[in-house]
Amino acid sequence: MNYIDQGSALSRKVPNRKLSKKNSLFYQQSVFENEEFLQKYEKNVDQLQTVIEEPELKEVIQCRNEKFFQLLEQIIKVESSIKDFAKGYQKFGFIVSDNGITYREWAPNAQELKLNEFSCTTDNGGNWEVFIPKDDDDNHQIVHGSTLTTYCNDLQRVSVWSQVKNGEQAIFWNPENKYEFQQQQLQQKQLSKGLKINKQSINQLQNIPGYNAILITQQVLMALDINQINPDDLKKTIDNLHKQGLLILMDIDHQIIGQYLKSWDGSEFQYVRQGTDQLDYGKWEVLRLLLSNLSFWITEYQIDGFKFSNIDLTDDIDIAVYLMLANDLIHDLLPNGINIINSFEYPALCRTIKEGGLGFDFKLSQTQTKQYLPKTLFEITEDLIQVQQLNALLFGQGVISDGKDNNLMLIESQIGWLETEFAEINVIDFVIEVKRSKYIFLLNLTNQNRTIKLNYTINKVLNHEGYNWKQIDDNITEIQIQSQYGLIIE
């Protein structure tokens, strides 16, 4: 069966569609003529700030921007707005109404589709649907907590749009009383120089001293496994952490999503590129699913931002356009949201879309980097040596850490040495000396112990109680810095 691009098919059917002013920026106008559009985007590539500053990037930026605007206009024609396009979770999966339950799934290769014993019908465009009315006693025929199995041809599947699972089984989650958030999402974005993120599993979320954000380890799309935590308990936890002033971010692992979706309807070309585990980011329903996943976590669980993992955009314009759409959507839904991507040698990751970039707030760099980079996060793992951890804290504008008891993080929180962006950097016999605020940092990144002389006195070493130095005279201090070690002195 050949793949049908529903976006192209639908947009051809509505070439003169008039959109309501309430729902669309493009009311009775071309996407490129609307005043609100021009305030948000810049179509003329020569006017993009990134191109003005780096004209050698013009060709690559022009190529991806043209495709971005083309796809955005197509989304507007078909769905009224990108926010409406990203509400797929309100259309697909298990939709509960006063009259019954509707189940919808996109499975273009299916010859037959059933939900438990209920047979679905198709529109011959890849969409399958069944409506399950209430019984004579006005009760849903599927009760809260029931197991839901999708039969696609001869395959047993879990709906792609499942929101609750029990292991490898979809669960119909429809309790009489659902938890209502008491706290709104944080409206003030954390300053980059003060962002400290601790990685935690979804069932063990807690406030760790020294951090102001939590990164929830990856989930597979929208599905929450009740073996870990149920929806109401997760909402209560997030609500409580928001009250404590913490940001809640989520890791989106695109490689795991691709592996999970591969051959869902029995074909090799539904959600992934044929013969691979890589998502096909150029397809309409792939984009709908991925963008809806982001919208779902923001809307349903008040997630404050995302880290995009295992996504390689080096040679793929479709991936770049997806990331632009994702960042555009997230910052539309949540203006102060935070989006992070692994650092690539790719142009303008952290410039806004209007400036010619992809729109990320942060890129993730290695701790060995010795430059003070704007909009950069450093990842600290427990196996890094102390000098690497200190280097990350000092030269980065924030960190992601999986440590539960990080003394350096606690010290940083107490003294706030990143309160000023100005840093004076010197090298003394291969030891890097960084002066910031009233503190001095000595980093020995070499594999030899170094004894250096400083032209000032030392009051104390903050991160090593009892560390010794030799006072030569009133202005000269001699101190040994061990190999792969760092000191914070006052």
From TrEMBL:
GO cellular component entries: cytoplasm
Any one GO MF annotation of this record: 1,4-alpha-glucan branching enzyme activity
One GO-annotated biological process of the protein: carbohydrate metabolic process
Superkingdom, taxonomy of origin: Eukaryota
Protein's name in the database: Uncharacterized protein
